[in-house]
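We modelled the chain as a single entity of 203 amino acids. Its sequence is:
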Amino acid sequence: MTTKTPTNETNTMSAKERDSLREVVRLNGRVAKTAIDEYAATLRARMEENLSKIFDEDDERWSELVAHAKQVGHEADEKLKAIAKASGIPMENAPGFMCGFINRGRYGLRERRDEVRKAGNAEIDARVKKARAQLERALAAKHTELLAGSLTSETAKAALAAMPTPEQLLPPLKKRDIAGLLSGHPTALMLSVESVNDWEEGY
């Protein structure tokens, strides 16, 4: 019994198959972008939930401690009043002692909530930007792979290979580049000449 050897016809992807795969890649890309936005919205919602959370002083985790603190505070206040009375200080002007449960901590201050919200949104925006960039690179790589398989001429293949990468389009700054910027604009990058001199020559 002889085994039939697969031909190039069965191993080669057809143009229709490539078009179908490219469409699938595009669809998956759109779904992934939506998922990134949904995740960012979830992170923002969690942040707002944490910022607005109010704790109950009767919570079993600390209710006993709160009761003890209140009792100590009450006793201290009574002693202060006794000292003030013995010293001839009018009660309406006497010092006192108050001990109370703070149910929101520093997030009870609007200024603090605004600070945390601003920092949190900046971090989420940075994560979204990074995720989108990674997704775009993955989609571009897959599209390039599918396109490369359809190229037959050496000229077309060479043109594809000659396309610059992001790293080639935006190479890292070297020490001499930073030094040149600083010489013209000393505060442009918030760096000192001394810090630049500490960099490795090959960076």
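As a brief sanity check on the tokenised model: Confidence is low (pLDDT under 50) at residues 184-203. Helices lie at 8-11, 15-52, 63-86, 110-150, 154-161, 166-169, 175-184, 193-197.
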